[in-house]
Design a protein that fits this description.
The complex is a heterodimer of chains A (359) and B (285). Chain A is 41% helix and 14% strand. Chain A has 359 residues and is of the alpha+beta class. Chain A has a domain at 96-120 and 159-322. In chain B, a hairpin with a 5-residue loop joins strand 11 (260-264) and strand 12 (270-274). The chains are: A alpha+beta (359), B alpha/beta (285).
């Protein structure tokens, strides 16, 4: 009798967890150290911090290791961890004007005040799989350092702040003034969104959205199912100081800095305030994740459309379906047993077939 | 054991009793009070991330955690089965963070959490049944937008749902909805009873037990209080019908008048067994 045992699932489940761990920890290779992940897989760390909604590079590295590099799973670990942490306070609103910039480009102008600063990026690499130096990474690192630091000219003093390109456009009255519109920001971690959602809620949801999901939605708008042909007024990557008020002394203090990517997207003009101006879209996310920041900038713009004509303009469509943790959880849940439901489905089908046959 | 004693016994590091912090518990309890006050109405709440994935019962888990007391005796079932993978996992979690005892016997349980079934044994007014919900919105079948369905509920505008059922009958001779069968609660809201089979729907009607529904991913809670009317949508000339098990019985305990699982045999035939394994075990003991 091929009956599924009523009890006894527990041992099998525990073995499955053990096997997962066994496979993850590898065989011949040296165990992965967190510092290696944090430094050498830093873009994965950044992505996981953004989607998990917790800026914690060490924890993100830990999550990535535990998830064997699967970013959905790692972001989920991080967000679940975050849910157990007490909320100690709120930071003061930060401005990216005093960002410690490591990269800053504008595609709207050939040159911009403060200059184009390429910084670390793979944008200009040839996408050739580097087969040769596979063996000796140490040597490769030494050669690179030699090349980078030898004959280095005396360091130029970088300006403390870079003028924002959008600010320059704004002064000339060329871009719309959007603002947030809701002075006390909505908190998507404490309340369920309702639609139309305030902009603060939309930006929060996008900021922890899944990179691939946001990209897909934004790309659909850029490519044809929508009207956004973005110009990157500015893309910045850098460190923003985290400021807050000391709970005892009441004084402002800086408790660290956060690496963020910011994209300000300008798209074609209309007359939002009775005068033709460019529309603006804003994207900001943890770490260096330029695809995400640009996609978010595009979507911030598309989601301000009053009557949606395509998926990327539909707030519910975009915001409900781009959260990686929710969508991956739900997609995975189909692996759970569904035999009760399926039997009920079979009952309906058999009934319908009977009706069909007798008709 | 009282909660304070439990705490004095030493709480696992970083965790408060029953995992959720007090703010989260308060949020859930407030939403539950509202849900009980407005039967069948979906109350939005600030659903927290749980250490189980979205779609794996996080709504039900948050309800259970917000109600849990150390003296509780908890039963967790999935598809009717106490030994199913997810039920085992969730039970382990409650034992760890709540220090509660677990049971497979419905009559011994103070709190039962379930996915897709309501136990066969009638529950009492001393018990609570927590149902895990994937889709809290019964109208999602006919309208994808949440803003639109909320408006439809507010206006009790259920014409499209009725039309949907009517068209099914016209086209297929049958209402094709198998599980998640829409019900009218207390004569007002159309409610998704969670993916329970139609077999279980009558158990919600004028019951002695409090039913709480949690959809974590969709951030909604709702409730059917005891002694509340729960009526599946039906037409005068096309009545609601439960799954047909006529002539079949459990090959293990011989039960009839229970929901049966069909197990395919290598020769193409099938055997039937109780879906509610706790009930089956009890009959065998």
């Amino acid at each position: 009798m091929s009956y599924v045992a009523v009890q006894g699932g527990r041992a099998a489940i525990e073995r499955a967890c053990d096997l997962n761990e066994y496979r993850r920890t590898g065989d011949a290779s040296a165990p992965l150290e967190l510092a290696q992940i944090r430094e050498q897989l830093h873009l994965a760390v950044d992505r996981v911090m953004g989607e998990g909604g917790l800026y914690a590079p060490d924890h993100a590295a830990l999550a990535l290791r535990q998830a064997a590099g699967e970013t959905h799973e790692a972001a989920f670990l991080l967000r679940a961890h975050r849910a157990t942490l007490p909320r100690l306070g709120e930071s003061l609103p930060a401005t990216t004007t005093d960002m410690r910039v490591i990269r800053r480009i504008s595609s709207a102008f050939k040159d911009v005040p403060g200059g184009q600063l390429l910084g670390p990026t793979s944008d200009y690499t040839l996408r050739l799989l580097e087969l040769e130096p596979l063996e000796d990474q140490e040597h490769r690192r030494a050669v690179l350092r030699e090349r980078l630091f030898r004959d280095l000219p005396a360091p130029e003093t970088l300006p403390d702040t870079f003028p924002r390109v959008v600010e320059l456009l704004r002064r000339q009255g060329l871009v719309e003034e959007i603002g947030v519109g809701d002075p006390a920001p909505f908190d998507i971690t404490r309340h369920a969104m309702s639609f139309p959602a305030p902009r603060s809620a939309r930006l929060q949801a996008l900021a922890r959205g899944e990179t691939g999901g946001l990209l897909m939605m934004a790309y659909s708008s850029m490519r044809g199912y929508g009207h956004i042909h973005p110009t990157l007024a500015e893309l910045r990557v850098g460190y923003v100081p985290l400021r807050h008020i000391h709970p005892r002394t009441g004084e402002e203090l800086v408790s660290g800095e956060v690496l963020v990517t910011e994209a300000e997207v300008v798209s074609r003009f209309s007359d939002p305030e009775g005068r033709p101006r460019f529309h603006l879209g804003y994207g900001l996310c943890f770490g260096q994740n330029e695809i995400k920041a640009i996609s978010m900038g595009v979507l911030d713009r598309t989601l301000r459309t009053n009557s949606p004509t395509c998926p990327a303009e539909d707030q519910e469509f975009v915001l409900y379906h781009t959260d990686g943790i929710e969508s991956m959880g739900f997609s995975n849940h189909w692996k759970l047993p569904h035999y009760v439901d399926f039997l009920s489905d079979l009952d309906r089908l058999r009934k319908a077939q009977e009706t069909h046959a007798s008709a | 054991m009282q909660a304070l004693e439990w705490i004095a016994r030493g709480v696992p590091h970083r965790e408060t009793y029953a995992f959720l912090d007090n703010g989260a518990k308060k949020d859930v309890r407030r939403a539950l009070l509202k849900a009980v006050a407005i039967p069948g109405y979906q109350v939005p709440y600030g659903s927290r991330e749980m250490p189980l994935a979205r779609g794996w019962g996080t709504g039900g888990i948050q309800i259970t955690l917000s109600l849990l007391l150390p003296e509780d005796r908890v039963k967790v079932i999935d598809q009717g089965c106490d030994g199913s993978v997810n039920a085992v996992n969730i039970k382990k979690f409650y034992e760890r963070v709540g220090g509660v005892a677990v049971t497979t016997d419905v009559s011994e349980a103070t709190l039962v959490q379930t996915r897709h079934r309501i136990p066969e044994e009638r529950m009492t007014d001393r018990q609570i049944l927590v149902l895990q919900v994937p889709y809290p919105e019964a109208l999602r079948e006919v309208e994808p937008s949440e803003a639109a369905t909320r408006r439809m509920h507010a206006e009790a505008d259920y014409a499209r749902m009725w039309l949907h059922l009517y068209e099914d009958i016209v086209r297929h001779g049958e209402i094709r909805i198998s599980y998640r069968y829409p019900c009218t609660v207390n004569g007002r809201f159309i409610m998704d009873p969670s993916p329970i089979p139609r077999w279980d729907v009558p158990k919600l009607h004028m019951a002695d037990t409090l039913f709480l529904f949690g959809a974590g991913r969709e951030r909604r809670l709702y409730a059917v209080p005891p002694h509340t009317r729960v009526e599946p949508l039906e037409f005068d000339d096309h009545r609601f019908r439960v799954e047909d098990f006529s002539g079949k019985s459990c090959a293990r305990c011989g039960a009839t008048e229970v929901y049966l699982d069909e197990i395919l045999q290598p020769d193409g035939s099938s055997l039937h067994f109780c879906s509610d394994t706790g009930h089956c075990d009890k009959r065998m003991s």
